[in-house]
Each structure stands twice: as structure tokens, then as C-alpha cells.
Amino acid sequence: MNEDEIKIISGNNYTEIAQILENFIKINDNVFIFPFLLENNRRVSLWAALFQHLQSESSGSIHIVCLSTIKLLSRDKTELENLICEKWIITLIEKAGLFNFVDPEDSLDVDMPVKEVVVEALKCLCNITFNSNEARGLCAYTIIAQGLVARLRSYKEIAFKDDIMLYDMKLLFILTALRQDIKAKIKDELHGMDYLISCLNELVLESSESQCEVAGSREVIEDAHCCFLQDNQQAIACEILKTQFNLTLQHSEEPVSEAEESMYLKLMPVLTALLYAQTSTQDSLMDLHSNIANLLTGVPPMFYQYLTPELNDGETALCTYAGRNMDALQALLQLLLYRLSITTSALLQSTKNQYTNLSPVLIVLIKSARGCRPQRKYLRQVVLPPLRDVSRPPEEGNTLRNQLCRLLTTPVTSVRDLVAEFLFILCKEKVGRMVKYTGFGNAAGHLAQKGLMGGARGPVQYSSSSEDSDTEEYLEAQPRIDPVVGCTRPPRVNPFEGMSEEQKEFEAMKLVNLLDKMLTEGVVRPARIGADGRPVAIDHVLDMREHPPNRPQS
């Protein structure tokens, strides 16, 4: 765009202006930087001209194309901090129709601007607030938060609600993620969580209405197993969940207040219903479940029991255990399998994204297993079923146990610790059972961290009833199992067979010399198990005579 075209845009020939801007939008639809605007102050002139038209009622015919141009220009962060002013932010808020929703307690007049104008203005606000700290600061001094929250409860009164909900939620997510003052205002003053929960509830009910009978009260979801979210509904739900994650994220273990308890009691049935839901593709379903898992990481464990409600007479579920509906928990396990598959397939030679991909769902499953006994028992039967074939090491194979055991030796220590903790809880924190399912070599690091190398058991917080019924195949193979690798070993040939005593002594001295060399050069250090159950380095192997190793407890 040259200077002559910018001069035309600054004028009043709306036909020529529309033609120039439409051509600019067509050419730059996939462009994110505009270096040619750095010359002769073109960027400032163009932005000023566009907003001058937006502030004029007489130029209403080109408002949509002006907003579309601003949407493209706002992708480029260059000089954006210096360009944005309060007047322009207020103009975009007005064009987005948010001034129609000022007080959430008042009766609302939903005399909205044209749909296309509202949508383009929201897209502009999303881009500008995402790329500009100055713009977010200006938003904090406007009524944008009040307008967004008030519109949450008024979508049924807006004819084109499906077109604006997604961008409303995107804008809410950006503001709550990057401005703590706006986040606090939406959460505490405007009770935004209650409205967001209601929006999620409405989405589930709308998607279920054509297939399932809806209970008389629309505040409670009675049956959402037949819920199918369309693509736009799935996208809106994901943005709501991301915003809720921002609002519920806490950095301290503060006790749950009565208001928060009430909020979580409303939230959990909706999240459970969304875990039952179906979408058009597996990727979109996993994206939905990933956002649910992220949100659940901030939910106190005491509310996890609502993920697996008790089945009433006549109710059915795909997965049940102890009279409870386990479909939601099974959906989280499917998410874990999906995350494991994309982690191993995309990152065969790299582990940089393991924590991002796996930690949320692992944290949720740990909280579930630790906080709810029926959920732990169900997870154990799925993840650690009774052993039958023990001819291969635990880390070999494609079962969920095999994949998790492989992560016990990943260099990403945060992921390794989460996986080990999850498996340890499923084993009721019994060292022997952990070694049985993972092999001592895989479990050693976690046991050392917990001070359980001597074989002691962790804190007794589980029922005494046995859940570990060994199969006939396992009992038959048990005498031949090597506990270090966690599988059977074929009979080994005696390496000293056929050697004379002198040859045996010679080989033994070679081994002694090699060990001595490694000790002298610091390659290895001898250790023993201390009183706290953790390895303690010793200066010389002869110290082992004075402090013999602790024997594992039976």
C-alpha cells in the first residue's frame, strides 16, 4: 500500500476506499508483518484513517472492511504499543456491541450492531489485546469485563449468538490470562465462573436436545451420554474451559470457601457430561478432553468423586465399577493413551514436549487415584491388570503399563516422577507390588527418592483387603522371574564352566582391577541403604563389612 492509496483512504470517496482495502485484504490474508508501512510514517497514517472512519456514522458502509483491515494490521506487533490509544479501544468495544451489556443485573437492551461488524470488531480486540500490553491496560479501565460477563447470560436474546460466542470467549481468555486485575474482577466482582458454567451447561443441553430427553430443570444435567458437539460448539467449549482454568488457577493450598464449594459442585457435573460427549473427529475430542484435564488440575481432590456418579436403577454406562459410572474416568485414560501416542510418534528423538503433553492428565489421574477408592481400583484394573505373560520386560510392548514403564527412565525427571507416583499409588504404595509390575531397575529411582530402598512400605492409607490375585501363569513363572528386570530369564550358561582354578582366579582379578579403576576415577561410587531408606555413599567398599546392607522386609 503506497502513500497515494493511504491519502485516498483518508478521504471520503467510500467506493475507492472500499476497493483499495478489499484488494489489500485479499493480497495480505496470510501476512503477519507489514515492513513497507515503516516508511514515511505510513503505519500511523493508515491506522488513524481507519479509526477516523469507524468513529463516523456517515462512513458506515465501509466499517466492515475497515475492521477487517485493522484485524490484519494488528497481527504485526511493530509500533503497536505506541499506536493504540484509549479512544480506539473504546471504539472497538462499541463496534463489538459490548456497550449494550453494561450491568449484568439490569434488564438488557440487545439492540446489537450488524453481525459482521460485531464479529470483526471482536477479532480486532482479540489480536490487539494479545499483542499489546498497552491495549490490555487500557481495557482494564473500560467496562469491557462487565460487557463480556453480562453478555454471557444474554446469548439467548441474540439472533447471531453462535457467530460471536467463540470470539467473546477468546477475548475473555486473553484478558484473564494476561491481566490479573481483570481476572480478579471477573472472578470475584462479576461472578464470571457461574455464568461460564451456565454457558457450558447450555451447550451440552442444546447438543443433546434432539437426541435425549432433557429434565425439567435446565440447571442440572440429567443425561448427556448422547451429547454430540458440533465443531463450533466444541470450539466454544474449549475456549470456556481455558478461561475457567485461568479463573480457578491458585498458587497456594488455601481451604475451599463455601462459595467455591458451591461453584465446584455446579462445575463437576458439567465437566463429567463433557467427558461423555462426542465430536466429529478424534482430534477435536482429544482437544476438548485436554482442556477438561487442564481445568481439573486446579480442582480440589474432594470433588473428584463426582466424575464417577453412582448408577441409579435402570441407568447404564459403557464402563462401570462398584456400581459407579466410570465413563468419564475412561475418557481420561483414553486421553492419556492419545497423549502417549503423539508423544512417542512425534518425538522419537526428542523429549522436550513430554511434560507439556503428559503432565496435566497424569496429575488428574494421580489426584483421582489418591482421593477416591473406587476410582483407584478401576484405574488399577485397567492400567495394572493381573500379570500373565512375564516373558518380556515391563517396558516392552504397547499396553498402557508398558508405555508408562518406559517413561520411568525418561530423562525428563518431572514426567518420570509423575508416572512413578501414579503407578506407586495404584500399587497401594507397596514396594514389592511396584517392583512386581515395573521391575526393580525401573522403580529404583522413585523408591530411592521416597526412602524405600530397604523395602519398607509407604504411609498406610489404603484398605487392608487384597486386590492382587496372582494368575496361575504368573505363579508358575515366578521362580524364574528376575526382579531387577521384571521378567523371566532363560537359564544361563556358567561362564566358569571348563576353567581351571588358576583361570578363574585370573578372571576374578581382572574384574577386581576394573572395579578399582572405576572407583578411583570416580566413575562409580559404592553406597549402602541408610536408616532413612535412601542410598548413602561410602568411601570404600570395605565399609560394607561394618554396615551390612539392609534386608528388604517381606
Number of helices: 25
DSSP E strands, number: 6
Q: What's the pLDDT, averaged over the residues?
A: 87
Strand order of the largest sheet: 1-2
- Taken as a percent bin, the fraction of beta residues is under 5%
Roughly how many Å is the radius of gyration? 31 Å
**Oligomer, anyone?**
single chain
Task: Tell me the helix content.
Answer: 55-70%
Secondary structural class: mainly alpha
Determine the N-to-C terminus distance. 80 Å
Structural overview:
- By secondary structure, the protein is mainly α.
- Among the domains are: about 385-460 and about 470-490, no CATH class; about 505-545, no CATH class.
- It is built from 25 helices and 6 strands.
- It has helices spanning about 5-10, 15-25, 40-55, 65-75, 80-85, 85-95, 115-130, 135-140, 145-150, 160-180, 180-190, 190-210, 230-250, 260-275, 280-295, 325-345, 355-370, 375-385, 400-405, 415-425, 430-440, 440-450, 470-475, 500-520, 545, and strands at about 320, 325, 480, 485-490, 525-530, 535.
- The strands form 3 sheets. The chain has a two-stranded antiparallel ribbon. Strands 3-4 form a two-stranded antiparallel ribbon.
- Strand 1 and strand 2 form a beta hairpin.
- Helix 4 packs parallel to helix 7 (about 115-130).
- The radius of gyration is 31 Å and the shape is elongated.
- The model is unreliable at about 215-225 (pLDDT under 50).
